[in-house]
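Subject: design request, 429 residues
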């Protein structure tokens, strides 16, 4: 394996034996050749190479094999077949408080885990204040871990994982626990580690976090790599699979894992991706500039230009109600601007097959210069399955402001600034 590769997985498979009765395990041991177990293959023929410094998101439904894959990379599980090569110190946060002794205090667990990760006593002492400050659990640092809440558990575990100078960081759903302030702190710390060249594997059901944090992504389905590539394309295909599963649509040969496992360089993310139960369909998506002109195949818009989005909705099955909306997304698929008919106080009631609606949204684009995509969608209500969802329905460019102003954030809003001189007063010590 080249020095530029952090993790190499070759033909990795993992089989678990399931016994109906506990005594069957003993009988199999003393009666060789007489298997009494049902085999469950959690992973099948996984081939994956992750370059150093890459942040890879791993997505998939519960039971797809994500956690098993991470445990094999972390060295917790041994693969049934295949070869695993890991180049670098691994810090893994796989399960809530995994590796913590519940009878030890938080302080004792910091030193215990640090030694397991290969740090010396002096190295842990040098990092202790940073770990305790990041966890921010106060005097509980000297209380037994068994008295911690789930949020305190993950605070301490994450603080240890990201402050021991890992070369490879593995995080499995840990950021779903904890308060909002801590989640933001974790995101900032992970971004800092990514920028410093730490290879990161990130499992999450938060599609926004995967699109924001990761350079690439892998979708695991039924123990195999189903799809891989840039995060937005993987998330789109993951949501499509979830929708098809809910609708009971069987995978065809064209949608098989072998067909879907494609090379990242061959992905065409501007191609629209569609999903939904098709009770109604959004047709003839149009975007007009401030002059009312329809945009061309390579549309370009001015900074903060007012645009009109026009959608035609065709009804094929009875709908009890209807919500239609849109998102403007950046190149990573993060939603920057969006709304819908319900939130804009235009509720749509019951609709019958054969009816058609024309829906118009008018809004400005105060966005940083760059490329953006349009997503449109519709559903009967917020809890119902979408009847139609189109990612990348259109891609367009936003030009820089003609004033020469530099846009430092993703969205630029009018801001009032006032600077007033103040009289300085002497400060007595």
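Subject: RE: design request

Done. Sequence follows.
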């Amino acid at each position: 394996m080249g020095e530029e590769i952090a993790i190499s997985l070759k033909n990795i498979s993992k089989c678990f034996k399931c016994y109906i009765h506990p005594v069957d395990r003993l009988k199999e041991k003393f009666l060789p050749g007489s298997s009494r177990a049902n085999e469950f293959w959690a992973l099948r023929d996984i081939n994956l190479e992750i370059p150093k410094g890459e942040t890879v998101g791993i997505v998939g439904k519960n039971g797809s094999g994500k956690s098993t894959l991470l445990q094999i990379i972390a060295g917790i599980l041994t693969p049934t077949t295949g070869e695993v090569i890991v180049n670098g110190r691994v810090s893994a946060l796989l399960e809530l408080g995994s590796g913590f002794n519940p009878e030890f205090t938080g302080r004792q667990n910091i030193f215990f885990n640090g030694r397991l990760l290969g740090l010396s006593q002096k190295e842990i002492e040098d990092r202790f204040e940073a770990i305790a400050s990041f966890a921010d659990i106060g005097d509980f640092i000297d209380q037994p871990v068994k008295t911690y809440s789930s949020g305190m558990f993950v605070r301490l575990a994450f603080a240890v994982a990201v402050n021991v100078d890992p070369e490879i960081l593995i995080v499995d759903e840990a950021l779903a626990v904890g308060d909002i302030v801590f989640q933001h702190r974790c995101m900032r710390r992970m971004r800092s580690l990514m920028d410093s060249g730490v290879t990161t594997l990130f499992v999450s059901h938060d599609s926004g976090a995967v699109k924001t944090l990761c350079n690439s992504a892998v979708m695991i389905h039924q123990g195999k790599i189903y799809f891989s590539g840039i995060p937005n394309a993987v998330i789109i295909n993951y949501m499509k699979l979830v929708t098809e599963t809910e609708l009971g649509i069987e995978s065809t040969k064209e949608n098989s894992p072998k067909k879907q496992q494609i090379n990242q360089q061959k992905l065409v993310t501007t191609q629209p991706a569609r999903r939904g139960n098709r009770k109604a369909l959004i047709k003839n998506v149009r975007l007009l500039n401030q002059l009312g002109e329809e945009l061309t195949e390579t549309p370009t818009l001015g900074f903060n230009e007012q645009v009109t989005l026009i959608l035609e909705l065709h009804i094929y099955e009875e709908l009890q109600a209807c919500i239609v909306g849109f998102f403007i997304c950046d190149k990573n698929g993060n939603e920057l601007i969006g709304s819908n008919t319900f939130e804009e106080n235009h509720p749509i009631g019951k609709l019958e097959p054969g009816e058609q609606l024309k829906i118009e949204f008018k809004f400005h684009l105060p966005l940083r210069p760059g490329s953006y995509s349009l997503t449109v969608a519709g559903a009967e209500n917020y809890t119902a399955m979408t009847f139609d969802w189109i990612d990348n329905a259109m891609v367009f460019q936003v030009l820089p402001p003609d004033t020469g102003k530099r846009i430092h954030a993703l969205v630029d809003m009018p801001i009032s600034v006032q600077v007033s001189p103040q009289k300085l007063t002497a400060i007595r010590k």
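Residues 231-247 form the longest helix (17 residues).
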